Structures are given as C-alpha cells and as structure tokens.
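ugh ok fine here u go
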Amino acid sequence: MKNRLPNADAARQFLLGFEHVVGEGLHYYLNTAVDRILTTMELLPDLGPDSLALELAAQPYLMTGLLHRYLPSNIHVANEGDFSGGVDGKIELVHRDMAAPIRFSYEKFNLEFDDYPYPDKTYDLVMLCETIEHLAWDPVHTLHEVNRILKPGGHFVISTPNAFRLENFQKILQWRNFYPPYSGWSWTSRHNREFVPYELKNLFEVNGYEVEEIQTRYDPGYDYSKWLKVIGKVLDSTPLARGVLDVIHVRARKTGDPRYSYPDDMFADRYAYSRINSTVLDMADAPESQLTSGFYPREVWPPCVRWTNGCASATLKCDGHPTVNVKFYSGEGMNGRVRGEIIAGGSNTRFDVESSSWNTVSHPLPTRIKGSVEVKFLNEYVPPAGTHDSRPLGLAITRIWLE
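structure:
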C-alpha cells in the first residue's frame, strides 16, 4: 500500500534536503513540478514490497526521491539517451536527514528508437512523467516497449502538458503563438508534440491498454491569468467542458500484447513507420505500420474489414513460414466473377472467385524468407457496391496470416 502522501509544502521541504537539488534551475523546477508529481503519485496503483516499478526519464530524481520514501516497492530508474548513445551508470542521492544515501543503478537509452534493456513481463508499474511530449518521431514505440516489459495487468502512468489548456486559448485570443518555443539544448529538449485527453486515451487503447483514469489538473507551473485559472477549474468540473486544465494524468492497465498501432488523426505518413512484428493481421486491430499501402479505413460489418483500392500491400514478420493466407469478401464483380492475384516471395497466385462471396486464398512462400515478407494484392476494378460509395474497391480483407 502507498503510504500517505505529503502535501506540496512538505514534499518541497523533503526534496530540498537532497544535496543534488541545488542551483536556480533545479529550485525553479522543484517549485513548479512538485504539485504535478504528487498528482501523478495519487494515480499510482497499490503495490507491495515485492513489486517492481520502473521510472523512465527519471532525472533530476525528484519523483525518484518521493517514490523511495512513499512507495513500498523496488524502484528501478532509467534516463533517456540522446542520439549519440547512452551510458549506463550508478548514482547516489544524499539527503541531510538520511543515515545512508539512496544508491541505484540506471540504464540510459533512447525511448523512441532503442529496444528497452529489460526482459518481457518484468514490471508491475512503469512511470513516464513530462516526457512523451518531447518525443519527436514515434511515441508508439514507447507504448510498445512499456507494454512488453509490463506484467499482465501491470500499469503505465504518465503525465504530460494538455494542448487544450486554457493558457493556449488565451494566447490565441492575444494573437500570440501557442506552439512551444525552440530549445537551445536540442530539438529533443523542446515540446515536439503536445496531446489532448481523447488522443491519449485512443493511443493507449489501440496499443494494448485499458485507460482506467484520465484527468486534467491545474498546475501552478503554468503562468497565465488568475481569473482564467478560476474559469478553468469551473469548466473542468462540468461534463461539457471537461479537460481544459494544464496537465493530463493517465493511468492505463495492460490488457493486450505489445502493438504498433498509429491512429489516423495523430500520424501522417503512417506507412513510413515500418514496425513489423506480427505474423497475423486481423483487420479488427491490424497495426497500420504493417498495412503499407492501398487500404481504406476499417469498417465493422461484422467482421471487421478493410477494403483495398484494387492495388494494396501489407508486410508481415516472416521466419521461414511456407504459406501466406488471405480471407476476404469479393464484392461486386464483372460478369459475376472477381479476379486478381496475390504476389509475395517472388511468385504469384491468381484467384477467380464468385462475386459477393467469402473466400480464403493461400499462396506458397519459399521457406528461405527471414525477417519480413511483403504481400501485394492486385485485382480488376470492382464497381462500388452501392451508389452511396464512389470509391474504387477491390477486396474486403478481414485477415492476412502466415503459417
């Protein structure tokens, strides 16, 4: 069980007891961050002394110090490395009121690009505070790797600035730019993408999590009109305008396997994210990174399908599998028939099936293929099945799999 958390003033006084919390920069960060840190800790699940927790991007170890005092579990930490590579190390946190320093090792790696150096299903809890907004290319990789290292039912807790916060609306009304400023330290030090609550909820849910709690909270670290802060608290208490406070806090529980799913409204050029880790693509939840071209958005009939536009391709993880299989609905054909071909592994399989029918077609692969295989679908133009739909349609694919 979590011990009773201190109030903000008591937490500040405790953290000021650490020798490393010195200098104007850290004092400022402490004064603006402690309320957010405590709010994040309020969302943490109850853990026992044998539980394992990981704090990603832990520097400057303010939350780390509070976790060691108020969370009765084993705390591991990691720091984010830059593109020149990371260096693992050890550190001591010395406190004036503690007989012995807090000693721990840390790993250093890039959250967006590296494989995290932890075994599958290791942790009961992973935390990532005020960091996801700094990721410049692929936050989905972070969700994937955290999912991988979480135990079934384990929790991922994050905090991040709210792009819908009233401070930004005030800037717009004042004809000011609401985008985060550049940073002289590096392009990873600035906020590269801020989120709104519904985006994060969707991002977590399509990547193997259930969002148990999502809320926005006032944070004194954001400097804007006091009257607007009062309005924000009132608005956030009403169902119609909820979600306008400064910081988003999320607690999500792992419910599915690691995925690489890229929601349409958050990612442009989704097919450039070539994260290939699945041998099965069910259109109910197929990762967009493996549907490389020519697929329309998912439709739920049931079953879930994605129409091709007559020329489409997908990529699957392959480790010597001898066969690729495709299950599809053939749509409206010419003269009662739908014809086409499946191309993969340097050869093709032609099909000729009845219109408006369900079919499964198999295509043999050379067993030497390792790593990945691209599967292409080519078929004659199929007129749309209804006047309301003017798209050129090919096949309504529900599943592609290797075996």
